[in-house]
Amino acid sequence: MTSPQSSSNAISRIGLLTNPLSGKNRRRPESLSIVIDEYPEVIRQDATTIEEIHDALLYFANLGIDILAVNGGDGTIQAVLTILCHDATPFVTPPQLMVLKGGTTNMIAGDVGINGDQMEAFKRLLQWAETGKGTIGRIQRPVLRLLVPGHEPKYGMFFGAGCITQATSYYHQHLHNNIFGGFPGICMTIGRFLWALIRKRKNFAGLTSMTINRDGHLTPRDDYILFLASTLNGLIFGLNPFWGSENGPLRSTAITSQARYMPWVLPFLAFNRMTRTGTAENGYYSSNGHEVALHLMDSVVLDGEMYTPQSSKHPTVLQYGGEATFIRI
Q: Which fold has domain 4-134?
């Protein structure tokens, strides 16, 4: 049995970062308050902006936190990863991350987080620190490094362009702050844009003109309906639209505006099921690698946050950005 003194020390090395403006947290602000009341020694910080998140992580680092629970959405996790993976990170050794589903889409949490009641999961972590009972599982995932001209480097796990950008913009403009905000709005947005893709309503789905350079292999400029890249093993609803066979941590997929047989091909490729017609000759590309350079001028999305290139002289670059350790209990 762990002694009270060492139990208190162990719990005090766990930090909780909460973004109260993330989707689920905004709708249920009391979700973790009961657990916090039971364990007052937990070090907690609330943050909503990148500056506040940086200050919170600096505070955690100075206190020697080695497990950081992030209670927020994909954008909050992206901000945390950007600070932890940057050369100027305040941590000598990056903390292990526990991702709680506090956001709207929670795509990252769906892959590396914990299913079920998030409050109970965090309580199990604290009980493990207090008593040593329970089993901690650790997951390693590559992190994606994004370089957009005119912006500081960002680190995350899901990148999109083309209709991904259009869908993100549509959700934030029309659904985010009304009765369809949250999961229903996400479902409506995905359904609307999938229908636009299948019907090839290009004025709605959005086209992005770009060249794609994957690890030195250049694809000539074309109009693309969709480009996405990720280091996650699975996306929202269990989607896994990557079928490349090369070795590499960055998985990417592109679909051109002239892609053929889309109503029949997309349902298979979306779940990593190859078809005879889902080929490059028919406008479908997927590969794994270490770096992708995109020459484009349209906005792009990283974990739900949008960035617009400020120059056409330099490409938007996706690179392998290191590893992050996530824990489950």
A: Rossmann fold (3.40.50)
